[in-house]
Design a protein that fits this description.
Largest sheet: none
Helix content: 55-70%
Radius of gyration: 13 Å
Structural class: mainly alpha
Order of helices and strands: HHHHH
Shape: globular
Distance between the termini: 38 Å
Length: 72
Amino acid sequence: MGLDRQLRPATQSDVAREVGVSRTLVSFAFRDAPGVSGETKQAIFDAAKRLGYRPNAAAADLARKHRSAVGL
């Protein structure tokens, strides 16, 4: 684990790197989309837990180009 990982939360890219799959496949697994084998999905979930991955709502909003928060 590098110093940069110690200073920031784990990302889907970190999980993908740990498992040896693409970030897109990690996203598919978290969304329970078809096309991800049960074995791969379990490896992704195990790595996410090990790395302390937590979904980031702001990042998801940016990816969807949608805002779920309102600022004042």
